[in-house]
Write a structure and sequence with these properties.
Length: 58
């Protein structure tokens, strides 16, 4: 099975995903539809850049 074509692999992945979703829903799981533009990011505070070194000018 290591020699599957990309198309066969995609179909297999799609089928696996479909089975997982079906099992999730059967167990009482619910799908929540999130509006476009909403982010999962919970905090916007804090530094946005990483400082790798603090060089001092002499």
């Amino acid at each position: 099975m290591a020699n599957k074509s990309k198309k066969e692999a995609a179909v297999s992945s799609r089928d696996d995903l479909e089975e997982h979703i079906e099992a999730f829903l059967k167990k009482g799981g619910k799908v929540q539809q999130i509006p476009s533009g909403v982010s999962g990011q919970t905090s916007t505070s804090g530094p946005r850049q990483i400082v790798l070194s603090h060089k001092t000018s002499s």
